[in-house]
TrEMBL record:
<dbReference type="InterPro" id="IPR051827">
    <property type="entry name" value="Cas4_exonuclease"/>
</dbReference>
<dbReference type="Pfam" id="PF01930">
    <property type="entry name" value="Cas_Cas4"/>
</dbReference>
<feature type="domain" description="DUF83">
    <location>
        <begin position="25"/>
        <end position="208"/>
    </location>
</feature>
<dbReference type="GO" id="GO:0051536">
    <property type="term" value="F:iron-sulfur cluster binding"/>
</dbReference>
<keyword id="KW-0540">Nuclease</keyword>
<keyword id="KW-0464">Manganese</keyword>
<keyword id="KW-0479">Metal-binding</keyword>
<dbReference type="InterPro" id="IPR011604">
    <property type="entry name" value="PDDEXK-like_dom_sf"/>
</dbReference>
<comment type="similarity">
    <text>Belongs to the CRISPR-associated exonuclease Cas4 family.</text>
</comment>
<keyword id="KW-0378">Hydrolase</keyword>
<dbReference type="InterPro" id="IPR022765">
    <property type="entry name" value="Dna2/Cas4_DUF83"/>
</dbReference>
<dbReference type="GO" id="GO:0051607">
    <property type="term" value="P:defense response to virus"/>
</dbReference>
<comment type="function">
    <text>CRISPR (clustered regularly interspaced short palindromic repeat) is an adaptive immune system that provides protection against mobile genetic elements (viruses, transposable elements and conjugative plasmids). CRISPR clusters contain sequences complementary to antecedent mobile elements and target invading nucleic acids. CRISPR clusters are transcribed and processed into CRISPR RNA (crRNA).</text>
</comment>
<keyword id="KW-0269">Exonuclease</keyword>
<dbReference type="GO" id="GO:0004527">
    <property type="term" value="F:exonuclease activity"/>
</dbReference>
<dbReference type="GO" id="GO:0046872">
    <property type="term" value="F:metal ion binding"/>
</dbReference>
<keyword id="KW-0051">Antiviral defense</keyword>
Amino acid sequence: MKSSQNSFNNFEGFNENEYYITPSEMLEFLYCKRYTYFMNYLGISQHEEKRYKVLKGRTIHEKKELENANYLRKKINVVDKKINVSMVSKNYGIKGIADEVLTLSNGTMASLDYKFAEYNDIIYKTYKMQTIMYSLMIAETFNAEVTQGYILYCRGKNVLKEIEVNIKEINKLNKYLEEFKKVMSGHYPKSASNKLKCIDCCYKNICVK
């Protein structure tokens, strides 16, 4: 990687004509795979700029960038941090911008991701897989060992949770990445099994059951 930047084009070997899956796209894919079909494959916008949580989440990110959150970093023995870090993994075909990339006192590195959500005793697989994606990108970008990542739940009491990065979770991510690519080749996936997700879906009028 070249010096710190916010442009993927600065990465050696990055081809802007190739499709790189982002953590945000993976989150939507795991919520409902038909999101990916309609939005990414067919190119039908979900008009996310009108959605309250998206707008609020962006505000939280902007606010957190300005706050001094050293008390959190001290809890996990952070010795250095980088903010809003653009990263690419050519090995996995993924790219993204991490809220923070941390260097820990034991020499390993980790991601810190802010979520506009309240921790309710479970870390959803959507968040886990995003953390695994950031971890793989950190490992490849910085040639570093990554054994864990962190999520900060900004609603409520600012709960900080650790996610272990291991081969089991990486294998899960690989499976989802292959499924994502299959949808991007035109495969029409099953809809979400939880039909409550359909109530507020922007694609419900065109989604064939």
